[in-house]
C-alpha cells in the first residue's frame, strides 16, 4: 500500500510526486506512456520555466529537470501502465491498472489525479463535408513533427487561435510547410499575446478574426476547405464563403481537462473549469482524492502547473483523514476561479483566475459573508481571458462562510 | 509606436517614443527587460529558436534542440537548414552542444533531452 499514488507522469504528476516524497510519503507514479514528461515531451519550443527556474527552457528541458529529481529521490514509477478505474476501499483506494503484464490492483491511501487534458476535435466543432485525412488537432500535428519527425501537411490552414495552434503555425513554417492563415471564430485571439507576435507576425502569417471553417473537401485526402466570416453571434454571414486549396487543416479549438477517472469515483466537477472542485489543499469533493495540473483546470504556464501540483503533493502526503469544515468560494466577472473551497482557519492561499472578458483596468474585491469593512481590494491592468492570473491572499475563514470574488472594470 | 514585449509570458504592451536625443522612451513595461527588448527589436531583432534534429536511433527519430541564446531574426531559416544537415549518432547528454558557435555568433545549439535516458528507457 502506498501513501500517495500519482496518476499521470506529466509535469503536474512529477511535481506532486516530488513534493509528496519530500514530506516522507511512499509514492508511486503511474504513466500510460513509455516515457515520463507528459505533453511537455512534444512542446519543444521555449518559454517554460521563467517563473519556476528563472530561465527560459524548452518543454523537454523543463520536464527533464523534474524527471531528474524523481530519479534522485528514487520515486517508484510504472510506465506503460494505464489506470482504468478507481474504487473506494476501507483503507483508501483500489486502483485498477492494465499493462503488458495484464490487469492488476494497486492500493493507496490517497490519490493524485494529474491526468492532464485532451484537445477538442473536429467532431466537437461543427464542420460539414467529408472526413478526409489531413485534418489534425494541433497536439497531434505537434506529435507528428516534434516526436516522430514527420511533416503531416504541406499547405495548411489553422482553425482556432489557441496557443498550441499558434506555436504549430511557427513550427510548421520552420519545417517548410506553408501556413496560409489562422482563422478564429471569436473577435479576439484565444492565445497569449506574445505568441501572436512571435509565432504569427514574425513569419507574416495572417490572423483572420471572426472567421470560421464551414466545409472540408476531399476524399480520402483533404483537397480544400471553405471559410466564411461570422457575425457577432457567430453565425455565418451568407455570401462571405471562400474556397481555399490546402492539404491540411489544423484544429486548435481548445482543451478540456481529462476527468473520466475522477467521474468514476464521484468527484464533483466545476462547470466553469470542467475540472474537479478543490479546496486550497487541492483536495476534491472526495476525501483523499487530489487533483492538479491541466486535469484541474487548463493552464497556460507550466510553472503554475508545478506550483499548484506541489501543493497537492504536499497535502496528499500530510492527509490524515479527518474531515474539515469548509468555506465556499464564489466568483463574478470571471471565467474560472480555483480553489473553489477553503478549509477553516487562517491560511495564505494562491488563487488562479481568468477574467470573463478583456479589461484594460480592473478591480478585484474579495469579501467574506458580504462584509464590506474587511474587504480586500486588488487593482489590475490589461486582463485578458487567455492569460491566467495568480493572486496570493491571506484569509481567515470558518466553515460555512461565503467568500466572494468580484472582478469588474472595462 | 506600439509593440509587445515577448521576453516573458507577461507580454507587456510597450509604447515607444523617440526622445529628442534619439534614445527611446519606453512605457508600459513591467520590468527593465522591456526597455532592452524594445531597443533590440528596433535596431536588430533577435530570437531564440527551437527545432529538432534527426538521430540514428529507431526509438528516437528526432530529438529537440534549441539555440542557447538569441540569434538575429533573419538567420532563423538558415539555422533550421543547418540543423537538417546533421544526424546524431551517439546519445547526447542533456544540454550538450550539437552545433558549437553557430555561424560564428558565439551561440551553441544544445540538446533539450538526456538521450542516454531515452535510449535506455
Ligand atoms: C501543446 C501544448 C503547448 C503548451 N505550451 C506551453 C508553453 O509554451 N509554455 C508553458 O509554460 N506551458 C505550455 N503549455 C502548458 C503546459 O505544458 C501544460 O499546462 C502542462 O504540460 C500540463 O501538465 P500536466 O501534467 O497537467 O498534463 P500532461 O502533460 O498532459 O500530463 C498528463 C499525463 O497523464 C497521463 N495519463 C492520463 N491519463 C492516464 C491514465 N488513465 N493512466 C495513466 N496515465 C495517464 C498522460 O499520458 C500524460 O503523460 C502547453 C500545453 C500544451 C498542451
Ligand atoms: S517588460 Fe518585463 S514583465 Fe513585461 S513582458 Fe517584457 S520581460 Fe516580461
Fill in the keyword field for this structure.
heterodimer; A: 410 residues; alpha/beta; FAD/NAD(P)-binding domain; Immunoglobulin-like; 5-stranded parallel beta sheet; 28 strands; globular; B: 121 residues; alpha+beta; CPE0013-like fold; 2 domains; 5-stranded mixed beta sheet; 3 helices; 10 strands; binds flavin-adenine dinucleotide; binds iron/sulfur cluster
How would you describe this protein?
The complex is a heterodimer of chains A (410) and B (121). In chain A, strands 1, 2, 5, 6, 7, 8 and 20 form a 7-stranded mixed sheet that branches. Chain A has a 5-stranded parallel sheet with strand order 11-18-12-13-14. In chain A, strands 23-21-28-25-26 form a 5-stranded mixed sheet, with no helix packed on it. In chain A, a hairpin with a 4-residue loop joins strand 6 (82-88) and strand 7. Chain A is 19% helix and 38% strand. Chain A contains 7 helices and 28 strands. The longest helix of chain A has 17 residues, at 302-318. Chain A folds into 3 domains: 1-118 and 255-319, FAD/NAD(P)-binding domain, CATH 3.50.50.60; 121-253, FAD/NAD(P)-binding domain, CATH 3.50.50.60; 326-410, Immunoglobulin-like (Sandwich). Chain A has helices at residues 11-22, 59-72, 138-146, 163-174, 193-200, 260-264, 302-318, and strands at residues 2-7, 27-30, 46-48, 57-58, 76-78, 82-88, 93-99, 102-113, 117-119, 128-129, 135-137, 155-159, 178-184, 207-209, 211-217, 224-229, 242-245, 248-251, 255-257, 289-291, 326-332, 334-338, 341-343, 345-355, 359-368, 376-383, 389-397, 402-408. With 121 residues, chain B is of the alpha+beta class. Chain B has 3 helices and 10 strands. In chain B, the strands form 3 sheets. Chain B has a 5-stranded mixed sheet with strand order 8-5-6-10-9. A 3-stranded antiparallel sheet of chain B has the order 1-2-3, covered by helices on one side. Chain B is elongated and about 60 Å long. The mean pLDDT of chain B is 93. The A-B interface holds A 34-35, 44-47, 50-51, 56, 58-61, 64, 67, 79, 145-150, 174-175, 192-194, 196-198, 202, 300-301, 382, 387 and B 3-6, 8-9, 11, 13, 47-52, 54, 61-62, 64, 66, 73, 76-77, 80, 94-95, 112-114, 117-118, 121. Flavin-adenine dinucleotide is lined by residues 7-13, 30-33, 38-40, 43, 45, 47-48, 82-83, 114-116, 139, 142, 163-164, 167, 258, 261, 293-295, 299, 301-302, 305 of chain A. Iron/sulfur cluster binds at residues 5, 7-8, 10-12, 29-31, 33-34, 37 of chain B.
Amino acid at each position: 500500500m502506498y501513501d500517495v499514488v500519482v496518476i499521470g507522469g506529466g509535469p503536474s504528476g512529477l511535481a506532486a510526486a516530488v513534493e509528496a516524497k519530500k514530506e516522507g510519503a511512499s509514492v508511486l507514479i503511474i504513466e500510460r506512456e513509455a516515457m515520463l514528461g507528459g505533453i511537455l515531451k512534444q512542446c519543444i519550443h521555449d518559454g517554460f520555466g521563467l517563473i519556476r527556474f528563472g530561465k527560459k527552457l524548452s518543454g523537454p528541458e523543463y520536464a527533464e529537470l523534474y524527471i531528474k529529481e524523481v530519479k534522485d529521490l528514487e520515486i517508484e514509477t510504472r510506465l506503460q501502465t494505464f489506470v482504468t478505474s478507481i474504487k473506494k476501499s476501507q483503507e483508501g483506494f483500489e486502483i485498477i491498472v492494465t499493462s503488458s503484464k495484464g490487469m492488476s490492483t494497486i492500493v493507496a491511501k490517497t490519490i493524485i489525479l494529474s491526468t492532464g487534458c485532451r484537445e477538442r476535435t473536429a467532431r466537437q466543432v461543427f464542420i460539414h463535408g467529408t472526413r478526409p485525412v489531413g485534418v489534425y488537432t494541433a497536439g497531434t500535428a505537434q506529435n507528428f513533427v516534434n516526436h516522430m519527425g514527420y511533416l503531416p501537411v504541406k499547405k495548411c490552414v489553422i482553425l482556432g487561435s489557441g496557443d498550441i495552434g499558434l506555436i504549430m503555425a511557427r513550427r510548421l513554417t520552420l519545417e517548410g510547410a506553408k501556413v496560409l492563415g489562422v482563422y478564429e471564430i471569436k473577435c479576439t485571439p484565444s492565445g497569449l499575446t506574445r505568441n501572436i507576435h512571435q509565432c504569427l507576425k514574425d513569419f507574416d502569417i495572417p490572423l483572420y478574426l471572426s472567421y470560421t471553417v464551414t466545409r472540408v473537401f476531399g476524399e480520402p485526402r483533404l483537397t480544400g476547405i471553405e471559410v466564411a466570416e461570422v457575425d457577432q453571434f457567430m453565425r455565418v454571414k451568407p455570401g462571405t464563403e471562400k474556397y481555399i486549396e490546402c492539404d491540411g487543416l489544423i484544429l486548435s479549438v481548445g482543451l478540456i481537462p481529462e476527468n473520466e477517472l475522477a467521474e468514476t469515483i464521484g468527484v464533483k466537477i466545476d462547470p466553469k473549469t470542467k475540472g474537479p472542485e478543490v479546496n486550497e489543499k487541492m483536495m476534491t469533493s472526495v476525501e483523499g482524492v487530489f487533483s492538479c495540473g491541466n486535469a484541474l483546470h487548463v493552464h497556460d504556464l507550466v510553472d503554475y502547473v508545478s506550483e499548484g501540483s506541489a501543493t497537492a503533493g504536499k497535502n496528499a502526503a500530510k492527509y490524515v483523514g479527518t474531515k474539515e469544515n469548509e468555506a465556499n468560494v464564489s466568483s463574478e466577472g470571471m471565467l474560472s476561479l480555483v480553489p473553489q473551497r477553503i478549509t477553516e482557519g487562517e491560511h495564505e492561499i494562491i488563487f488562479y483566475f481568468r477574467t470573463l472578458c478583456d479589461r484594460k483596468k480592473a478591480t478585484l474585491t474579495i469579501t467574506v459573508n458580504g462584509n464590506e469593512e474587511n474587504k480586500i481590494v486588488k487593482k489590475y491592468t490589461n486582463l485578458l481571458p487567455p492569460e491566467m492570473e495568480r493572486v496570493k491572499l491571506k484569509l481567515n475563514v470558518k466553515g460555512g462562510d461565503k467568500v466572494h470574488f468580484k472582478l469588474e472594470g472595462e | 509606436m506600439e509593440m509587445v514585449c515577448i521576453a516573458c509570458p507577461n507580454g507587456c504592451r510597450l509604447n515607444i517614443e523617440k526622445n529628442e536625443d534619439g534614445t527611446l522612451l519606453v512605457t508600459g513595461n513591467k520590468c527593465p527587460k522591456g526597455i532592452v527588448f524594445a531597443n533590440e527589436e528596433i535596431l536588430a531583432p533577435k530570437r531564440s529558436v527551437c527545432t529538432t534534429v534527426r538521430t540514428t536511433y529507431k526509438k528516437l527519430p528526432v530529438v529537440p534542440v534549441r539555440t542557447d541564446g538569441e540569434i538575429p531574426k533573419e538567420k532563423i531559416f538558415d539555422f533550421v537548414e543547418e540543423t537538417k544537415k546533421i544526424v546524431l549518432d551517439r546519445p547526447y547528454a542533456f544540454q550538450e552542444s550539437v552545433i558549437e558557435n553557430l555561424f560564428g555568433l558565439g551561440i551553441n545549439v544544445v540538446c533539450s533531452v538526456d538521450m542516454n535516458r531515452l535510449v535506455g528507457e
